[in-house]
Amino acid sequence: MSVQSLRPPRQPASKVVYAPSSALSHIPGDDGWPIVGHTLSLLADPKGFVEQRAQRLGPVYRARAFGHPNVSLLGPEGNELVLLDSQKLISSALGWGVILDRLFPRGLMLLDFDEHRLHRRALSVAFKSGPMQSYLSELNAGIAKGLAQWPRGREFKFYPAIKRLTLDLAATSFLGEQLGPQLEAVKQAFIDMVAASVAVVRTPLPGTRMGRGVRGRALIVDYFNRQIPIRRERGGEDLFSQLCRATWDDGSLLSNADIADHMSFLMMAAHDTLTSSLTSFVYRLAASPDWQEKVREEQRGLGLARDEPLPFERLDTLVNTEMAFKEAMRMTPPVPSIPRRAVRDFEFMGYRIPAGTGVNVNPLYTHYMPQLWPEPDRYDPTRFTVDASRSRHKFAFVPFGGGPHMCLGLNFAYMQAKCFTWHFLNNFRVSVPRDYQPRWRMWPIPQPRDGLPVSLAAA
Ligand code: HEM
To answer: How far is residue 75's CA from residue 271's CA, in Å, rounded to a whole number?
Structure first.
């Protein structure tokens, strides 16, 4: 029997330990300050830190952050080698596990190689065209309802509002049904889990973020366990119900534990990334009135009434909207850096990278390389015309990663961005003062420190 036809056994996490600094001394760089290494400089200015080191040390350098030495492989060639990983040299589970293991264990990014491939195939049923159409109808309804409460004619903090809206949308398109009195508890538990995943104190002591996160996970797992038999019997088109019906290649259903792990991970993977990307997108539209008008014109060209839902069949025609969204993600990628750990020795640009090395690639750095993106600080969506994109390195634009772990929700993300833009620009003209620039806190996921105050006027 081939491995594909089996239900995959739960595999223990690989035991490859971190390579010590002494094993990396042939790679340019240093260990930084005692104990903290380079963590503080990296947190203070992730873009500046990487650019300065690249300039001084070259595209392959070592640093020490978050307790471990690691090597950065910068630029599209590094992205391709690490993300594509055609020789199975590099673990995603060991890279992300340091941050996500306790609260989001065994999500797709925390699985590797053959086991990952089987899980990914089982989950992909939830992202086919049929289910996507039904998520879009939930998104249309939820966005229209949410925006009806946003104020016209006064300043408004965009970031907290879109964060709330994205969570409400996830509750309906991911979890479906009216959650009733459980809704607020499930949403809060989920917020606590996400906050805890980047907490400094990693022990779940009472009163700490990690303590709240671990309690939140217990509540959510309990909720999923109670709901799975109900969803299997009653059906439903939301993402959770799709996973309850998803099967391995031999036709057997996913276990409750697998469904709970994948569902919590999917909600986490979708929530902050969508919040961040829609925030930077709206900022760019507010700061570029010509592009805002171009996107609105494109929408009007659909010939639909303003309050009609955006139909699934028209998504592909919103070409300018997509280019404008991509350019916002180029400038502010929601996942600025992607961690991995080598499980076998390999070589890159003449440097030997030993097994156990923490390795990372950097979409943020790549997206500002002037040789790939002339005048990288200028917002210019025409960089994404078909012609312009064709001549560029395939791993020059990597907001969704690439290779076997490439974002499974990529089409969902474009769909939600287009649906949001449809309702938003039909209702509002958005602006910021001419000299305004948000100050982004880039780690772990970019967010504007001031909440992005914008002015909303009736469209
Ligand atoms: C603009 C929004 C989004 C961005 C920028 C984004 C970005 C990414 C990136 C960079 C990765 C790959 C990380 C790596 O290689 O280590 C990834 C993986 C993933 N994303 Fe997204 N994501 C977005 C939205 C979503 C949504 C809406 C969903 C679900 C509905 C989703 C589900 C996932 C999943 C399941 C993975 C893991 C795939 C795997 O390991 O096979 N993401 N995402």
So the answer is: 27
Place of tokens 């060209």: 301
Residues of the chain whose pLDDT is less than 50?
1-6
Shortest-distance Cα residue to atom 20 of ligand 1: 407
Does ligand 1 have an atom closer than 6 angstroms to the CB of 336?
no
Distance 198 CA to ligand 1 centre (A): 17
CB of 285 closer than 6 angstroms to any ligand 1 atom: no
User: In the block, which residue shows the tokens 């992300």?
Assistant: 96
Q: Scan for tokens 């809206």, then name that residue.
A: 165
Specify whether the CB–CB gap between 224 and 260 falls below 8 A: yes
DSSP string, 37-64: BTHHHHHH-HHHHHHHHHHHH-SEEEEE
Determine the Cα angle at 372 with ends 370 and 373, to 5°: 60
Question: pLDDT per residue over 265-288, tens digit each?
Answer: 999 999 999 999 999 999 999 999
- Expressed in angstroms and rounded, the spacing between residue 113 Cα and the centre of ligand 1 is 17
- Collapsing DSSP to helix, strand or coil, 232 comes out as helix
pLDDT computed for residue 111 by the predictor: 96
Burial readout 160-196 (b: 16 or more C-beta within 10 A, e: otherwise): ebbbebbbbbbbbbbbbbebeeeeeebbebbbbbbeb
Q: What is the pLDDT of residue 5?
A: 38
Q: Which of 364, 398, 407, 412 to mutate to test the pocket of ligand 1 (most atoms within 8 A of CB)?
A: 407
Tell me the longest C-alpha to C-alpha distance in the chain.
Answer: 66
CA of 367 from ligand 1 middle (Å) equals 18
| The pLDDT value given to residue 7 | 61
- Copy the structure tokens of residue 283: 């900022």
CA 437 to chain centre: 23
pLDDT tens figures, 157-168? 999 999 999 999
Tell me the H-state helices in 198-255.
Answer: 209-234, 239-245
Whether residue 415 has its Cβ less than 6 Å from ligand 1? no
What is the spatial distance between Cα 447 and Cα 276, in angstroms, rounded to a whole number?
6
**How many angstroms separate the alpha carbon of residue 57 from the centre of ligand 1?**
31
DSSP string, 130-196: HHHHHHHHHHHHHHHHHHTTSPSSEEEEHHHHHHHHHHHHHHHHTT-S--TTHHHHHHHHHHHHHHH
Q: What is the pLDDT of residue 235?
A: 85
pTM: 0.96
